[in-house]
Every structure is written in structure tokens, then in C-alpha cells.
């Protein structure tokens, strides 16, 4: 039988692990489960798993594990020779291009993201102008990872058909 699975975690790649941990704990309030740790290519269980995922020759990387208020995990990776993309928003290519958090103070959280080295990509917009107070905005963390902010839950936002005229 098919049933809706729960979301476990997401992995983000950054160029500075300590800065990312500081950003996500201070700006989004996420908490550290495992502080920054180095993982090396070796015969350990995690080393073998990483060979399966990254292939041979990855050498080492650093990782920290955080969690959100609703217990979703966030793995933050800093790979050797990591680099920030020139164009971090190639939305027409497959893959995850953003994640979304919920905060009733969309404007306040967007401002806090900007104050802490991130970027606001657009003005705050309403889904149902003049009818319902559902708002959203796209921002970026200091590494170019896209963060969408919703004022209300995903289910509330879309249950009434947000794209109807």
C-alpha cells in the first residue's frame, strides 16, 4: 500500500561549515545535533558509504547535522575545494532548487537573513491579495542556497487552489 512518507532530512553544500552552522542556528533557530566533524575516505562504515555515494577519490569532507523545530534533519557539507556556483538558480535544470520554512513574520525573517549575509531575491508577495493573509518570499543563505519563506502551512496555502483567478 502506498502512503505519504515523512520527510527525514535535506543535505546542503556550503563553502564554510562554521559560518553555515552559525547562520542556520542564529537565523532560523535550528539546533546542532552533531557539530562539525571530518569524514575521511577509509574502511570505516561511513567511509565505505561515502565511496558508494561520491565514488572513489573524494578524500575527505566536513559535515554538521542540525534539526528544525519539527525534527527535520539538515546535513550541511563542506567538501574539499568547494566553490560557490556562479548561477545558483538554474531552475530549468532538474534537481532540488530550494527549500521552504514557515514563519508568520515573513518580512522579519527575510530581513534577518539579509542582515546575516543572505539575500532577498524578490519582494514579499501575497497568494490571495485582499482575501487571505498568505505571504511568501524567496531568499538565499550566504552560500546561494535558496530559502523560500511561507507565512502559513503548505497545506493551507494550496488547499484552496492558490492559482485560481
From TrEMBL:
Domain of life: Bacteria
GO MF, any single term: lyase activity
GO term, biological process aspect, one: L-methylmalonyl-CoA metabolic process
All residue ranges annotated as the VOC domain in the record: 6-152
Keywords, sorted A to Z: Lyase, Metal-binding
Pfam families: Glyoxalase
PANTHER family: BLR8189 PROTEIN, METHYLMALONYL-COA EPIMERASE
Protein name as it appears in the record: Lactoylglutathione lyase
